[in-house]
Design goal:
This protein is α/β, with parallel strands linked by helices and 330 residues long. Helix content is 37%, strand content 14%. The protein is built from 10 helices and 10 strands. It binds NADPH dihydro-nicotinamide-adenine-dinucleotide phosphate.
Length: 330
């Protein structure tokens, strides 16, 4: 493959917390649209277009598919065929924590699960190391010292360059950060959900991450496609909500949500943007947010998402209008 010479002129690269690593302000996640059930050529086209537009960060997890593991296999194929020569230009992440194999070791946060799962992920992707390895979710039973100790061990073994955590609340994040720092492997990054429809990180987590010097990559900034023009005229047959394995269920697309989406859509139009672009700009308005981690089912979608960086600013009036749309009871 021949990559565009201008690919690094499109997206700002932001320092991830107080680390040496910079991430693109828009990153691509492979949770949906890259599984064994999806068309390989489309997945390949989206990933390569993303790379060509300057997206250097690709986010995976052991269980992405379906079937679980197949997104890593798809990405491994794309790496082998097209991106092998560019490995050092890429930041590839994976995670362990959700159910991956039967028995007591196939999920959660034990050292046993994390180390074995990463070995499987590396095989599926044909990699010697990932750039970031995450504890995918907090484990209420395993001592946090063990889970963080496993991340430290993994980094020291050279199978990951940096450690991250996902969906940890502020209290657990603080404790995880302290343990990792004491082990000499500082927490690079936190991956929480965040969108106009899901603002939990504003209640303490973002402030904590800034204080701790931890980067933040927010997942599902488009609320899985709801915060776009996708569902304004019903549920398209090729959309996530129409797919049996899609995580977005049709009953989540309520009249109330659509009413807010229509109002937000009008506001985005007034800014000369698509709603998807305004939704991305909105999560990036926080200094603590390093990157917006989007998904895409087509080349056009990833092109539109990247173009969000052309207009990231908001006036106070626009932010106020968004707050009103989100908070007014309908
Ligand atoms: P988004 O909120 O960005 O939703 C992506 C979907 O939005 C696409 O599949 C597409 O829907 C639609 N879309 C994207 N761009 C456009 C556009 N320009 N116009 C119209 N519709 C658009 O993120 P995801 O929910 O996909 O999550 C992103 C990533 O975050 C995942 O791949 C994964 O890496 C990570 N993640 C992490 C989790 C964790 O626990 N740590 C949990 C969930 C996600 P359609 O397919 O219908 O076309």
């Amino acid at each position: 493959m021949i990559s565009s010479e201008e690919r690094y002129d499109n997206i700002p690269y932001i320092r991830c917390g107080r680390s040496g690593l910079k991430l693109p302000q828009i990153s691509l996640g492979l949770w949906h649209n890259f599984g064994g059930v999806d068309t390989f050529e489309n997945a390949r086209a989206v990933a390569l277009r993303a790379f060509d537009l300057g997206i250097t960060h690709f986010d995976l997890a052991n269980n992405y598919g379906p079937p679980p593991g197949s997104a890593e296999e798809t990405f491994g194929k794309i790496l082998e065929r097209d991106l092998k020569a560019h490995r050092d230009e890429l930041v590839i992440s994976s995670k362990a924590g959700y159910l991956m194999w039967p028995g007591p070791y196939g999920e959660w946060g034990s050292r046993k699960n994390l180390v074995a799962s990463l070995d499987q992920s590396l095989k599926r992707m044909g990699l010697e190391y990932v750039d970031i390895f995450y504890s995918h979710r907090p484990d209420p039973e395993t001592p946090l010292e063990e889970t963080m100790g496993a991340l430290d061990q993994i980094v020291r073994s050279g199978k990951a360059l940096y450690a991250g955590i996902s969906s940890y609340n502020p209290d657990r994040t603080k404790r995880a950060a302290d343990i990792l720092r004491s082990l000499g492997t500082p927490c690079l990054i936190h991956q929480p959900s965040y969108s106009m429809f899901n603002r939990w990180v504003e209640e303490g987590l973002l402030r904590l991450l800034e204080e701790e010097g931890i980067g933040c990559i927010v997942f599902s900034p488009l609320a899985q496609g709801l915060l776009t023009d996708r569902y304004l005229d019903g549920i398209p047959s090729d959309s996530r909500a129409a797919k049996p394995h899609g995580f977005l269920k049709p009953n989540a697309i309520t009249g109330e949500k659509l009413d807010r989406v229509r109002k937000l859509n009008a506001l985005a139009e007034a800014r000369g943007q698509k709603l998807a672009q305004m939704a991305i700009a909105w999560v990036l308005r926080h200094r603590a947010v390093t990157s917006a981690l989007v998904g895409a089912s087509s080349v056009t979608q990833i092109e539109e998402c990247v173009a969000a960086t052309e207009n990231l600013g908001f006036t106070d009036d626009e932010l106020h209008a968004i707050d009103i749309i989100l908070s007014t009871s309908l």
